[in-house]
Every structure is written in structure tokens, then in C-alpha cells.
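User: Predict the structure for this protein chain, please.
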Amino acid sequence: MITIEINERTKAGKALLQAARIMAQKNEGIEITKENSVLITKIKHNHNKGILSEKEKADFLEELRNEL
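Assistant: Here is the predicted structure, written as C-alpha cells:
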């Protein structure tokens, strides 16, 4: 198993993620998952520093709601 972190905000990240999604639909052996534990750790770390914007906070909360 290989884990790749993709910045979904960049053009390259969006393109790579889209290609992976297409391949995952057509092939077994490719699975796209979000590792929430890593995301939550990063968000908490940044939140304590006051780095997150209001939009990032809202996006994070929405993502958590979708996971539940």
C-alpha cells in the first residue's frame, strides 16, 4: 500500500485526484480513502496556532459531518 497526500486546492492536485478516481472506477486495486486521523491532527495543530481561516474551519466541519 502506498499513501499519497494530495493538495486538492492546486491544479496538479485536482488533476491527479480526478485521474485516480477514474482509474478506481475502472480497476480493482485502486482505492481512494481519506485518513481523517491525519487530517484531524493537522487541523487541531493549526487551530491552536490560529492559522485556519473561517472557510477552512467550515470545510473541515462539513467533511466531518459527511463522514458520520
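Residues 34-68 form one domain.
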